[in-house]
Amino acid sequence: MFDHAGMIGQAGIGELGLYHDDTRYLSKFEIALERRRPLLLNSTVLRDNILNVDLANPDLPDRPDPLPRDSVHLFAQSFLWDRRWHVRLELHNYALRAVEIELSLLFDADYADVFEVRGMHRPRRGKLRPPVIGRDEMVLAYEGLDHVVRTTRLAFDPAPASLDNGRASYRLRLAPQGRIAIELRVGFERGDSGRPEAPRFDHAYERSVAALERLRSGCAAVHCTNPRFAEWVERSASDLQMMITDTEHGPYPYGGVPWFSTPFGRDGIITAYELLWFDPAVAHGVLRYLAATQATEIDPVRDAEPGKIIHEVRGGEMAALGEVPFGRYYGSIDATPLFVVLAEAYHRRTADHALIASLWPSIERALHWIDAYGDLDGDGFVEYQRRSGRGLVSQGWKDSADSISHASGELAAGPIALCEVQGYVCSTPTPISCARGSSARSGARTSAATCSRSTATSGRARCARPTPATACSPGSRATSALAAWSTRCSTTARSRAGASARSTPPRRATTRSPITTARCGRTTTR
Q1: How many CB atoms lie within 10 A of CB 488?
Q2: Whether the Cβ atoms of residue 516 and residue 233 lie closer than 8 Å to each other
């Protein structure tokens, strides 16, 4: 996060900085000309997620050769790529004489946890290591209380005239119409993650743009004659691609910059659901990630229960130490049924049988959680009540502490059943509901008329829908339900794809339905 001049200072509430894994690796970055802040002319973020900033020198009357404002233009470009921030500063002398000018880069790293930046106080912190200074490189490091060393590596090209703790200075001589370019590469390293490759600015930019365009090439596109609408769509797509990160399980849309730049269950599911027509690969990554992080045990501190889908995952020092419960936190009432809804919608869209088959145990565990843990008081509704003293009080989509109240204004006490959650539960796919009905547990076949979820105490069904007859014997519940689900979704896929699709085998997980043929573009860092 930068100010409009592309710098990191103390603007706002002090949230500016470069973050990686919920830690601020660079808390200060300022540019000075003759020890003064340059004038901002313009700044913009382009489609390729590169920040362009136009700066100029202020009036400098106290020099032996006074320099009027706007004599030296400073063009700054920067972008993030592969755990590294790339910066190029290009100075252009528009004066009619040669100009000597000092350019200084000021920097610092506080390694504040994102929850510290948000206002939480920590009685104890780790220790900053002494900086290691070379001719053209400086290494800043911090050893956390979690015994993880976090490192910021700054490399300058060319080497500055002087490099000390927190300042790199250049004494530049620019001929009339002369240009000089300076590059800075800032790398983020955690523990033994290793020192990443450090390509020069142009090379890194070409790789970044090529990868972005390659991934964008198969996405659905929106074209219109209204330039304002077209600009809005383009900006929205770029913002979304900026927040999508490739995880080991596939692409995942993070919650938002800077506080929520991490996986959130509900946010990822809803984003993936809305993008199914545009890029089903996002749903593929979201489903695999959520299945891999699904709760396996009861843990009140994390509001976790077997089969529950995560609310959020954090990788910072405070989460690792348990100072906040969000390392892997499950305080979300709607993410679990929405996980099942997304799985069915993804299969309907892509006919990706292989993925659904691999997810089937996770889908069944999610449905089991709805029945076994979701209904706290047996009234037939899925509700929540915080179990962790430090967790979220409100666990629906609006999870601020004061979001659920009575008409009188008094805050509601748990358990709380949200109306939309009941809709999500009733929207879980019909074949699954049949496979899990009471008749399935008894080994009988379900009725072709209705398939309902019954409650033990009230006898009231949560939902009832007409469904096709489905075999539901205990030994083949998942198989028969998957077959019914696959048949229904394959029919939809064939009607979209045409006759040629009938003779083709199921697509691999990374392929697309006929509307899109490649993964949507995204950048790996934000």
Answers
A1: 16
A2: no
Q: Is 188 exposed, middle or buried (0-12, 13-18, 19+ CB in 10 A)?
A: buried
- Detail the DSSP E strand segments found in 214-367: 244-247, 250-253, 312-313, 328-329
Counting every residue written for the chain, the total comes to 526
Residue 81's nearest CA partner among 198, 160, 170 is 198
Q: Can you spell out the DSSP letters for 90-137? A: EEEE-SSS-EEEEEEEEEE----BHHHHTT---S---EEEEEEE-SSE
226-253 in b/e form (b: 16+ CB < 10 A) is: eeeeeeeeeeebbebbbbbbebebbbbb
pLDDT of residue 31: 96
195, two tokens: 């020192």
Please give the structure tokens belonging to residue 376.
């706290």
Per-residue tokens: 517: 């043929």
- Beta-carbon-side half-sphere exposure of residue 413 (alpha carbons within 13 Å): 0
Please state the rounded mean pLDDT for residues 454-474: 33
CA dist., res. 186 & res. 273, Å (int): 36
pLDDT higher than 50, residue 516: no
CA neighbours closer than 13 Å in the CB half-sphere of residue 199: 12
CB within 8 A of 188, min separation 6: which ones?
A: 18, 20, 25, 83, 84, 150, 151, 152
448: its two tokens: 């072709």
In this prediction, residue 243 carries a pLDDT of: 84
The C-alpha atoms of residue 370 and residue 481 are separated, in whole angstroms, by 18
Rounded Cα–Cα distance for residues 382 and 341 (Å) = 16
Confirm if 483 and 243 have CB atoms less than 8 A apart: no
DSSP annotation of 256: B
Other residues' Cβ atoms within 10 Å of the Cβ of residue 331:
25
Residue 233 clears pLDDT 90, i.e. is over it: no
3-state helix, strand, coil in the chain (%, to 5): 30, 25, 45
> By percentage, how much of the chain surpasses pLDDT 70?
80
pTM of the model: 0.75
What is the average per-residue pLDDT within 353-361? 94
DSSP string covering 339-387, please?
A: HHHHHHHHHHHH--HHHHHHHHHHHHHHHHHIIIII-SSSSSS--B---
**CA dihedral in degrees (122, 125, 130, 134; nearest 10)?**
-70
Query: At residue 523, does pLDDT exceed 60?
Result: no
Q: Do residues 41 and 54 make contact, with C-beta atoms less than 8 angstroms apart? A: yes
Whole-number Å distance between alpha carbons of 256 and 269: 14
